[in-house]
Amino acid sequence: MDRNDALLSDWRERALALEAEVAKAVIGQARGIRLISTAVFARGHVLLQGDVGVGKTTLLRAFAQVLGGAFGRIEGTIDLMPNDLIYYTYISAEGKPAVEPGPLIRHGEDLAIFFFNEINRARPQVHSLLLRVMAERSVAAFNREYRFPHLLVFADRNRVEREETFKISAAARDRFMLEVTIDAPTTDTERRRLMFEPRFHDSDRLVGELAAAMLDYRQLNTVAELIQRSVQASDALQNYALSLWRATAVPAEYGVRLSDLDTAQLMLAGASPRGMSLLLRAARVAAWLDGRGYVTPEDVQAVFVESIAHRLCYQPVYEMRRHEISGRLLSGILANVAAP
User: Are 315 and 266 contacting, i.e. CB atoms less than 8 angstroms apart?
Assistant: First the structure.
């Protein structure tokens, strides 16, 4: 085993330990934990969606706790403006106006996690600022450039409330590596624990009891790139991924049929080049977490829906039904595109 293999093996054990630690704070979310862990080691941003009170915020806070580094947070509200991320003003004890750095720039280059709670309550102007931060990991403020080389953006939105919310644009959605759906636990055993075990009734204490800074967040970029260079994708696997990409734009040509829809007239645009690049980054990490040095079709399939569903653009008549359509469409694509 060479030095790089040994390093990746050691970091894989750390990654699995990190997942086990997060699992102490949430119940019945093994797949969500694995997907967020995948994004962390692929250095991709994560958007969580789900109903109210299913643990989205607790899950993201748990990851922030175990990953370490500086943590910034803001709550999405209808009156939030872009400058609220960068600075805030107040009257000092001396009765004079004062300005302090906002949550985005307060920690400078040490910012590792920025958590945007209820992102769909924020205005499109705020989303636009976030786009640059997510794409370039930098922002201009106070006549200087702030850079965030270690930054991951975690955001969540609930899919129930529509009042005082704003649609997240396709450009903003495309910046997220994964959109992960979090549902409430389904088994009576899990629900009983959530209802009757007191430790789950205080989320602050629950998250605070997790081990802090289990990893050196400053090394994650280096480890992530080593994973991408070391985990191989065969020619057959690459051809499979290319077929999946084409099928997202023209599903009817691949025999995808949905009983109540004309798939030949469904799509405005398929997955973006950025989306497919991020899909393969995530698939390589999925392979690494499973202890392999090569990508299998199962690795691609494991992250396909979460990597691609939020990037698809439907014809306007179907756009309002995207959450109903996307899962069925992508399942049909996976079923109809032959895997090597």
Answer: yes
